């Protein structure tokens, strides 16, 4: 029995030494130290031994078990350390290599244009006012000299929510609300940027939702020359110092007289090209003197106070400023398009 135990110990230790994985070591443990292993089978035959031999053989069996268990523990530890070392080698990081570049975002071109316009008019003494995008029919139309059934309402196909509420079609309602807050006392000098909504078919130059920024000045002795001077400064700051403007008669229900404002083409300098359709001029906005009815409905005495107003779309300005040919580029979130404005 003694020789059999020593032989089993030698076999187990040899297999442990040659094992290349934790799985193989575990198989040796189960095979030799398990309940059905050969060492257990040998110990079951100890009943045939004399009383003097049993303690000697029991002690030897325990030594063999401890020897095999100790070898298994050492082998497991060695294999685990080798596996860790292999992973460290495979996953080694060269700390001297440059890091991955961090991609920086870019401001949206409409944000850039809006901020430029706000900075320009704030520098001229204007304040920035905001108002609700869901408006009442009164502020969106009636207070702007557009009573119900007025034919000019057809110029703006609207998104009505109820018979009396709608998504605003312009930022002009903010002007009316601001005039009412002043309770007939000037001066008023504001710009009103924001989103507006009209039932329009989306194409390269139209969108059902777009941005608008309107300006309003009301005070005593305001004239058309004040409007013209303001718009000339706007054109030079936004499109270049050599830009000129021209005013063409037009119609808007809330201004009288009303004008369309053109700026000399910044690509050809007024000589005529594809951008200005060979005219030398590009239409940029609408403007005019505030209609007396609008002033009166807002609590101002039109005999004492006069004013001018203008309105423009940020998309229109951005398309002209950056040579963008499709308004839909502003809303499709194409990274290739937006990344061009990182240095703008």
From TrEMBL:
Q: Which residues bind Mg(2+)?
A: 256
Query: Which EC class, in a word?
Result: ligase
Q: Where is the Aminoacyl-transfer RNA synthetases class-II family profile domain?
A: 113-320
What does the record give as EC number? Answer: 6.1.1.20
Report the cofactors: Mg(2+)
Q: Which UniProt keywords apply?
A: Aminoacyl-tRNA synthetase, ATP-binding, Coiled coil, Cytoplasm, Ligase, Magnesium, Metal-binding, Nucleotide-binding, Protein biosynthesis
GO biological process terms, alphabetically, are: phenylalanyl-tRNA aminoacylation
Q: Which GO terms describe its cellular component?
A: cytoplasm
Q: Localized where?
A: Cytoplasm
GO MF assignments = ATP binding; catalytic activity, acting on a protein; magnesium ion binding; phenylalanine-tRNA ligase activity; transferase activity; tRNA binding
Annotated coiled-coil segments of the chain: 61-92
The record's PROSITE patterns line, in alphabetical order, gives: AA_TRNA_LIGASE_II (PS50862)
Quick one: where is this thing mainly located? cytoplasm
In terms of Pfam families, this protein maps to:
Phe_tRNA-synt_N (PF02912), tRNA-synt_2d (PF01409)
Q: What detail does the entry give on cofactor binding?
A: Binds 2 magnesium ions per tetramer.
The record's catalysed reaction(s) read: tRNA(Phe) + L-phenylalanine + ATP = L-phenylalanyl-tRNA(Phe) + AMP + diphosphate + H(+)
Q: What's the superkingdom here?
A: Bacteria
HAMAP family under this entry? Phe_tRNA_synth_alpha1
Q: Which family does it belong to?
A: Belongs to the class-II aminoacyl-tRNA synthetase family. Phe-tRNA synthetase alpha subunit type 1 subfamily.
Q: How does this chain assemble?
A: Tetramer of two alpha and two beta subunits.
Which PANTHER family does this chain map to? PHENYLALANINE--TRNA LIGASE, MITOCHONDRIAL, PHENYLALANYL-TRNA SYNTHETASE
What name is this protein filed under?
A: Phenylalanine--tRNA ligase alpha subunit
**What organism is recorded for this protein?**
Bacillus gobiensis
